[in-house]
Amino acid sequence: MTAERTGARDVETMIDLLWRTRPPGSRGPRGALSLDRIVETAMEIADADGVGGVSMRKIAERLDVTTMSLYRYIPRKEDLLDLMFDAVMGKPDTGAWPEDWRGRLTCYALDARATMLARPWLCDIPLSGPPLGPNNLSWLEAALASLDGTGLSDGDMVGLIMILTNYVLSDVRQVVSINRAVPRTGFTYEEWGEIYGRTLATRIDPARFPHVVRVATSGVFGPEAASGDEDFMYGVDFLLDGVEALVRRGDAPD
To answer: Is 63:33 a contact under the CB 8 Å cutoff?
Structure first.
């Protein structure tokens, strides 16, 4: 069945929008309006009101155009969200990255995390598929180039980058969720550690949860517990240790 008959999104149209190769529709007035201006305006609204506040009507009001005129450039809101995500990510600045593959992938993870945390509303944009836009593909290119020369197969490289990227996405969503909950809970990420450990140690039945209580009373969640950034780096190092094991396995003599 075709995309038109099922209502499914047309991948070719998505790519044309992301790469700016789709000419605007012929209907409606022409002027200073452009796809980039629409996306930039949508991002400004998201910065102020979140993704939920973004609508074609609000964008049209900001740009002083009719709502229908926007559809000459962007067929529907899902396409707009994809354009916003790709625009926010930008291109990675790899100039300061070290030469070794491990250092480069560490920078990849840290830089991607910082970029997404700077615009928390990115977490509210559902992923619609693999990277297709020029900016997101630039991140993929940088990660693949980092692993070039390690001896890993193309399949291993893609799989490892997917795992690392998903870890970054998961961490960002966790940090953003906890930060958003502070007005309701009163606790930051770091404060939760001590409160969580103290609660488990004093309120949980050790006969029922012996391992949980043992860990809680060991100081893992105490005042000296790792920060959110340290927790993130622990996970990155853990994952890259696995990559290093694969690289060494490939270097081992038969």
So the answer is: yes
**pLDDT digit string, tens, across residues 148-199:** 999 999 999 999 999 999 999 999 999 999 999 999 999 988 888 888 888 9
For helices 77-89 and 101-117, what crossing angle results, to 10°?
130
Inter-residue contact 121 to 47 (CB < 8 Å) = yes
CA–CA separation, 109 and 101 (whole Å): 12
Cα–Cα distance between 191 and 133 in angstroms, integer?
38
Tokens at 159, concatenated: 């799989």
Strands (E) across the chain are located at: none
pTM score? 0.89
Radius of gyration of the chain (CA): 23
Residues 6+ apart with CB under 8 A from 30: 24
DSSP secondary structure string, 173-195? HHHHHHHHHHHHH---HHHHHHH
Quote the CA–CA distance of 123 and 15 in Å, as a whole number.
22
